[in-house]
Amino acid sequence: MRTYILLFIGFAGCLSGYAQTTVISVGGASSMTIKSGTIFSADSLVLTPGTDFTLSSNNIQVSPTAVTVAPAPGINRVFTLGSQVTFTGTIQLYYQPSELNGNPESSLLYTDSAVGGAWLAEGSSTVNTTSHFVQYAAAAQPFIGATASHQGIVLAISLVSFAGAWEGNNIGLQWVINQSREAADFVVDRSTDGLTWTRIGNVSGRSGDGLYTYGFADIAPPAGPLLYRLEIVHSSGQTTYSNIVRLRKDQDSHVQLLIKSHGATVYFDGAQPSSIRLVNAAGQTIWTDKTSRSRYDLDGLPTGVYFLQYEINGQPGIKRLLIP
After folding, report:
1. In this predicted model, what pLDDT tens digit does every residue of 219-276 receive, in sequence order?
2. Distance linking the first and last C-alpha atoms of the chain
3. Do 101 and 52 share a structural domain?
4. Which residues contact 196 (CB under 8 A, 6 or more apart)?
5. Phi and psi for 120 in degrees, rounded to 5?
6. What is the pLDDT of residues 15-69, one digit of tens each?
7. What pTM was estimated for this model as a whole?
8. Of the candidates 189, 79, 218, 86, which has an alpha carbon nearest to the alpha carbon of residue 139?
9. Domain identity same for 130 and 59
10. Cβ of 193: how many Cβ atoms within 10 Å?
11. Is 294 helix (H, G, I), strand (E, B) or coil?
């Protein structure tokens, strides 16, 4: 395997006048590894992996033909891969204002699709209307295509946070919903690879307006890395998905948190992380540190829910922080 440390300058060039075009291709005889923290650009799809990311027997193509995203079409810039990948890190997709295809730019969301799945807009993504790009903080995100779109309607129910942690031999999951004049039910899915998901539980929603907290316990789950997601089944029949929570017992159990007013101290007992970052409930990265230490002090944080993402021995982990 050949390993590359790549730094390319991304651009959002005009796509009009040509059909689907290959912007990068990696054959089966070799592979390309993008090192953690390296900015990699394939045309105007920019990936900054949080862990080393390898492409093998794959290609990335770009097309000016929009795809169907309910309830509105996507923009006229679509990236597709030859085979599905799973990515952890930051994904940015640049576009031209002329490619909006009727989408209001201020409402654009990063949108992707997995094998056999629909195109789904990520509600926690952000848009930069000055430099014209959408951005998404991905955690073991499976995708085979990427574009931008908008949800078209404001849902009466939204996910504020979704997190989990080991509790002895079980895993406790907790999520907070903000709802108005609508209730929803929840399906809890588990996966070991981010590709195949198994339904492990159902939780009924409650009626009423405001913030509601729900929980689910996965009793004696299998060993190894585990991923969890929520299917949010709205009363309208529409289904949306949460962020993905990744847990690993042997790694997660060595992370200790000391919560204090407007901050926290994080201790790593044993192996130290190669990097950590703090993400708020909206999915925005607000702090990163690529030094390897046993203690980190997080101070001056506004009250709210945060997610501490870290990597130990090549394995990513996540901890939920509720800052008073």
Report:
1. 988 878 889 999 998 876 778 888 888 877 655 556 777 787 888 888 887 778 888 8
2. 48
3. yes
4. none
5. -125, 130
6. 444 567 887 877 665 788 899 999 999 889 999 999 999 988 899 999 999 888 7
7. 0.47
8. 86
9. yes
10. 12
11. coil
Phi-psi region of 314 (alpha: psi -120 to 50; beta: other; left: phi over 0): left
| Helix spans in the chain (H) | 249-252
- 180: domain range? 157-246
d(CA 295, CA 199): 37
For residue 99, the SS3 value is: helix
Tell me the CATH number at 81: 2.60.220
| Number of domains present in the structure of the chain | 3
Domain boundary among 149, 182, 208: 149
SS3 240: strand
Separation CA 290–CA 37 (nearest Å): 9
**Tokens, residue 46:** 């920019």
Sequence-distant (≥ 6) Cβ neighbours of residue 298 within 8 angstroms: 263, 264, 265, 266, 278, 287, 308, 321
Amino acid at 182: E
Which 8-state DSSP code applies to residue 97? G
Do 259 and 224 have their domain in common? no
Which residue type is seen at 204?
A: S
Question: Among 126, 149, 172, which residue terminates a domain?
Answer: 149
Same domain, 88 and 185: no
CA distances to 77, 108, 145, 237 from 115, in Å: 19, 23, 9, 22
Amino acid at 212: Y
Q: How far apart are CA 104 and CA 108, in angstroms?
A: 7
